[in-house]
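To: structure subgroup
Subject: Chain for Friday's discussion

All,

I'm putting the inputs and outputs inline so they're searchable in the archive.
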Amino acid sequence: MSVRRVLVVTSGALFVRGGHMVIAEETAAAFRRAGYLAEVLVTPQNRFGRQLSAYTATWLTDVGLTADGHPVDHVVSFRFPSYAVRHPRHVCWLNHRMREYYDLWERFTRGLGRKGKLKEGVRRQLFHALDGYLLRSNVTRLVAQSKTIQARLQRFGGIGSDLLYPPAPERPYRCDGYGDYVFAVSRLHPLKRLDLLVEAAGLMKNGSLGVKIAGSGEDEPKLRARIRELGLEGRVELLGAIDDAALVDHYARCRAVFFAPWNEDFGFVTQEAFRSAKAVITAPDSGGPAELVVSGANGRVASADPQAMAEALDAMADVHEAERLGQGALATSRSHTWEQAVQELLRA
């Protein structure tokens, strides 16, 4: 019997490489390690306001045969509009629909005028109907990447799904000890709440524990200004964008990892920190991260206010406590493997 061919389908914006692309590439790599032929197909993703053409182009994309005429045996899709592809064995491992028309609707329409709200309201109804049809009738199985995503599917459409957390990307994770700083890595965006970390750092009782934040984005000027205002230049450092080797190195050497976004779909940071034997500090409303962090066992879950976060950070001043929680995190990571994910995704 010939090796089964698996097509991994996702969408992407030009010159943007988000976490969904990492998941797609890691999924294809996991299938290849398991002995399958696997490729990643990136569907059209037009700019906001022209999404319908992207859905249409994806619907019309032929994913039944390879270029040399061999059948594609299995399809795994991810975010909108990739689940519009048509195939008889199609598993959607959903990370998110167009969030501006779902859980981010109020935030999205806050600055719009009456005409803008009316126009976007019509589009919202259209995509709710379109997504509802595709996720119920166009896929043979729907799998959510977190309970947060499952809840959104139920809230917006009453759509049922199975659950499968993505494992961490395959990198040479290690633990070199528990250094003198808390590490955070994310796009510098309001939803990632790095400002919460900066404010908490200013309230910490222990001044020996520093903070290093990796990433770039629109919030960088605001964060730099606040760091200066709080007199934290010597303790809070913005590293900018870093490569994979530096990322693994910071995971290996930090005391713990801060990851407390608002209502995150999933987020690899938690799994990567766990693989590096590092505790994760998060918030109850952080979505996917809060599902994996058990406070006192593999990290800390603290209210999303600066004082509560400062207390959680101060707890990491005890290196023995950080190590205890880090070992709990490492144990948690062993229950999420790509071998298991491949078998689950093949079950159509």
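Points worth raising on Friday:
The chain has two domains: 5-164, 181-333.
The domain at 5-164 is CATH 3.40.50 (Rossmann fold).

D.
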